């Protein structure tokens, strides 16, 4: 993904979601990290033009987005299951069992 595609996603998804929830761009604080496509001039100018307030992100910071840590933990736990889930139904059963503290798949 490049900056142009990222901006297109923001135009479609972010503005569409705000519209669906009857929110204006100036009513939220938008968060993304310092990925080059996020900090590209094309994207920064678009965000400014939309009057979106962007949460400042420190350079070279660790990933502060909790979902990345959650996915990493799920992946680590799933790697211990044998046999490995072969389809989405088996995967969902393993995830549910793990979240409920049950052993096995």
TrEMBL record:
Alphabetized Pfam families for the sequence: DDE_3
Gene3D superfamilies: Ribonuclease H-like superfamily/Ribonuclease H
Start and end residues of each Tc1-like transposase DDE domain: 14-89
InterPro entries, alphabetized: RNaseH_sf, Tc1-like_DDE_dom
UniProt feature coiled coil, ranges: none
Molecular-function GO term, any one: nucleic acid binding
Protein name: Tc1-like transposase DDE domain-containing protein
Native organism: Pycnoporus cinnabarinus (Cinnabar-red polypore)
């Amino acid at each position: 993904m490049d900056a142009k595609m990222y901006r297109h996603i923001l135009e479609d998804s972010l503005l569409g979601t705000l519209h669906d929830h009857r929110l204006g761009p100036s009513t939220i604080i938008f968060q993304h990290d310092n990925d080059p496509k996020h900090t590209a001039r094309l994207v920064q100018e678009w965000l400014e033009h939309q009057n979106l307030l962007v949460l400042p992100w420190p350079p070279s910071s660790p990933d502060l987005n909790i979902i990345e840590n959650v996915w990493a933990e799920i992946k680590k736990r799933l790697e211990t299951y044998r046999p490995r889930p072969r389809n989405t139904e088996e995967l969902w059963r393993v995830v549910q069992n793990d979240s409920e503290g049950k052993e096995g798949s």
